[in-house]
Amino acid sequence: MNLERLITEGRNPETMDIDKLETPDMLKKINEEDKKVPFAVEKVIPDIAKAIDSIVERMKRGGRLIYIGAGTSGRLGILDASECPPTYGTDPNLVIGLIAGGDKAIRNAVEGAEDNKKAGKEDLANINLTCNDSVVGIAASGRTPYVIGGLEYAKSVGAFTIGLSCNPDAGLSDIADVMITPVVGPEVIMGSTRMKAGTAQKLVLNMISTCTMIKIGKVYSNLMVDVQANNEKLIERAKRIVKLATGEDDTIIEKVLQKTHYNVKLTILMLVTGLDEKRAKRLLNESNGYIAKAIMANERR
């Protein structure tokens, strides 16, 4: 791998003196570079949209969303995947994060793991990858062997493949069905891709998972209506979500939430339509979990 040719491995001319600056001035330099990240992401929104639409299409056929990466990239994928069950009430196996070196690598660097191309294939095979799945290969360099091996295997089984890199014309570009490349430029500290590149990857992953969840009915307006109320904070959030969606009296909200075992989506539909629990459940199922569609269907009856 010729690092000199990678934008993410370049030397940033704006921060050559960062080691001589006072702390506030150091922070200003970092902040100025960070400001470039959302603009880089903005330029690749059409590619992100293509990826999301294909992910949703396959997910509606029973497919999963799988992130695969090494180091910081792998950890970001795991972070995004792990937030989906509590936020959107998804099955833990619907969005999966894989990292080179396995779970140990989440906290500690596993030397040489990212160079193992075969392991990328094996990790995907071990979760029984299918043609209905979508795989996002995350690599700031775009050339990580573990990720390339994973995407090549995904391609071979007919899965939808997405590359996420911060270097144009990287190795992933030759494999991925859709390539997402926010070019953020050289890092504040040369080669420290946990910084701007990592931030860009996090923003893109936020977009992918959030928009996917919206499009499979996990959001009503801008409310997370499939939230799992399994702690005190989330119980209070569930009550507030129902309140914002319905404007109903707190006592009634509490009563219906208890009746539905804190199923926020079902509670909202019952309060908005006046349907009993059994009919609301049936209508919600007929509407594939979309509250707005269920409400419209009830109004037409």
Mean pLDDT level: 94
Give the class from helix and strand content and strand pairing: alpha/beta
Share of helix, binned: 40-55%
Strand content: 5-15%
- Total helical segments: 13
Low-confidence stretches: none
Q: What is the 3D form?
A: globular
Topology readout:
Layout lengths: L22 H12 L1 H8 L1 H15 L5 E5 L1 H18 L6 E5 L4 H4 L9 H9 L8 E5 L6 H12 L3 E5 L13 E3 L15 H20 L3 E2 L2 E2 L7 H15 L3 H10 L4 H10 L3 H10 L4 H10 L1
Parallel strand pairs: 1-2, 1-3, 3-4, 4-5
Antiparallel strand pairs: 6-7
Short note summarizing the structure:
With about 300 residues, this protein is an alpha/beta fold.
Protein described:
The structure is a single chain. The termini are far apart. It is globular and about 65 Å long. The strands form two sheets. Strands 2-1-3-4-5 form a five-stranded parallel sheet, sandwiched between helices. Strands 6-7 form a two-stranded antiparallel ribbon. The protein is 51% helix and 9% strand. Helix 2 (36-43) packs across helix 8 (196-215), helix 9 runs parallel beside helix 11 and helix 11 crosses helix 12 (277-286). The protein has helices spanning 23-34, 36-43, 45-59, 71-88, 104-107, 117-125, 145-156, 196-215, 232-246, 250-259, 264-273, 277-286, 291-300; strands at residues 65-69, 95-99, 134-138, 160-164, 178-180, 219-220, 223-224. With 301 residues, the chain is α/β, with parallel strands linked by helices. The model has no long low-confidence stretch (mean pLDDT 94).
